[in-house]
Design a protein that fits this description.
This protein has 222 residues and is an alpha/beta fold. The chain contains eight helices and seven strands, in the order ααβααβααββαββαβ. The chain has a five-stranded parallel beta sheet, with helices on both faces. The longest helix is centred in the middle third of the chain and has 15 residues. The chain starts with a helix and ends with a strand. 41% of the residues are buried. The mean pLDDT is 88.
Length: 222
């Protein structure tokens, strides 16, 4: 529903900078002035890939003006204020930039890091799912939001050290019964910190037959 609402607004509203309402260039969500304030990683988009991943890319650091955009995208305000399309426009634009920086072949399949069904029910949408859908559309790849399942309702990773994050998500993911995983799979999330979640998800995909797994994220923690 949220993705459909944003698509509708894209059709009926004029394109303006999400930050200051000026005219943005091309397909950008921000004008050049607002874009210049972001902590870009364009010269070094690759992180040391977590175990199980062939590569992991991000467009920006999770710092400065990026933090509020991502937080507003992930945790929209209640009521009509939560239907503001600006955060989704900015974060969606950033994940497309990250995808363009990914090395290797284009994806055959694009998957989001899944939420557990309890978390999805209470939240109403999976932010990573919306990002993965946009990436799949841009790269003419298959999008499957349920091919990978989160079988444990893990606590938040916030505040945990690297070892704690790894233990928290151990065994949390499982391929859906009957799901097919082709040659190249992109795993999509909003922010990568230690890479523990992406790593555990990638291991589950490789056990199910995926050959190349690339993590594509909007931002990485400095």
């Amino acid at each position: 529903m949220r993705a459909a609402w944003n698509a509708f607004l894209d059709l009926v509203l004029p394109r303006v900078c999400a930050g200051c309402r000026a005219d943005p260039p091309g397909d950008a969500a921000l004008c050049r002035r607002c874009s210049a304030k972001l902590p870009w990683l364009l010269q070094a988009p690759l992180t040391e890939p977590p175990s199980g991943l062939d590569a992991c890319v991000a467009a920006v650091e999770f710092a400065g003006d990026v933090e509020p955009w991502i937080r507003r995208f992930k945790y929209p305000e209640p009521g009509l204020a939560g239907l503001n399309p600006a955060p989704a426009a900015v974060v969606g634009w950033l994940v497309l930039i990250a995808g363009r920086l990914a090395p290797g072949d284009p994806p055959d399949l694009v998957l989001p890091i899944p939420l557990h069904r309890n978390r999805l029910r209470s939240r109403g949408f999976n932010p990573a799912g919306e990002l993965a859908r946009s990436l799949a559309r841009e790269h003419h790849a298959t999008f499957d939001p349920i091919a990978l399942e989160r079988i444990r309702d893990t606590p938040s990773q916030t505040g945990l050290d690297k070892r704690g994050r790894r233990r928290n998500v151990a065994g949390a993911f499982e391929p859906r019964l009957g799901a097919h995983f082709p040659q190249t799979v992109w795993l999509v999330d909003d922010v990568v910190t230690t890479g523990s979640t992406l790593s555990e998800a990638a291991r589950a995909l490789r056990r199910a037959g995926a050959k190349h797994v690339v993590g594509v994220c909007v931002a990485r923690t400095p």
